[in-house]
Amino acid sequence: MTERPIRVGFIGLNPDSHWAATAHLPALQSLGGAYEIVGVANSTPESAERTATALGLKHAFASPAALVASPEIDLVVVTVKVPHHFELVSAALLAGKHVYCEWPLGNGLDEARRLAALAEETGVVAVVGTQARAALEILHLKQLIAEGFVGEVLSTSLIGSGGNWSDKTIEEYYYLFDASNGATMQSIPMAHTLAALQEVLGAFGPLDARFINHFETVEVTDAGETRPKTAPDQLLVQGTMASGAAVSVHYRGGVSRGTNLLWEINGTEGDIQVTADLGHAQMVQLTVKGARGDAKEMTEQMPAPALYNGKPEFAGARNVAGIYARLAADIRTGSRTAPSFADAVALHDLLDRIETSAAAKG
Question: For this UniProt entry, which segments traverse the membrane (predicted)?
């Protein structure tokens, strides 16, 4: 007998814009009948009605509370801004729903710990969207390292551009520039990419960090205003991995005229280089190259082309689909293969260590 689809309710979904529409919708559509999106709750009932009508959904809930209470929802997907995660995810967990929450899980380590504890108490499947861990290129890279392509890993270095967090923005993204909102360069592009780095190379060991803020104000171009900026625009981290390999990370605000994601892994037998057009490993197409032994030039070391068949073309949607595929298996079989809230706490803890080290510099 065919299992019925997992019934999904979105908190924060517009039909033609933003991350939920461009990544989550095509991700779910690519998985056949595993899921059915049945309802939505947005900031207003009118917004939910517009989305439900545009997407042909059964339910436009008047509030998130109504959505999480509905017996017709199995999985609550939270895709709103970070400051709202704790309240909405808590409500879903207390209602006994499975949860997929976008990263960051909470606004800081304490909120993440409290949500993870609540998820453990309720026994539901609670997943965080660190989808770079499910990228085909990252899984292939992990295999290359495990098979000894570079030999013993001696060092790894990462340079990334955040896209935002420079001296200009638009009204919609201004909240990213206020550190109190928990949506900073370190918590979004750097953390997503560090999740991938740790998937491949294991956990961080001792580290030291420094943050620099070259721009204390930001021009909000569409509002014609200059406003305060408290999120840093240069992030420097160095230390060692738990394995003993040296690690160096530099994230910078805005974009570069050079390579906007450059990640190298250097070992006793070979070298690997990962590049992309932006420092958000979770949502950009990654290119993997490498050389070993007597080879003098790097060649592509990409996953088999057949692995991309039937998957979304947009890398962000493809990676999110990888998380949803694991999540469906976890719900149906009791496995725990998707990034969990406990995994999110570990990543939040790494961020807290980095931020604490940087704050000590004054």
Answer: none
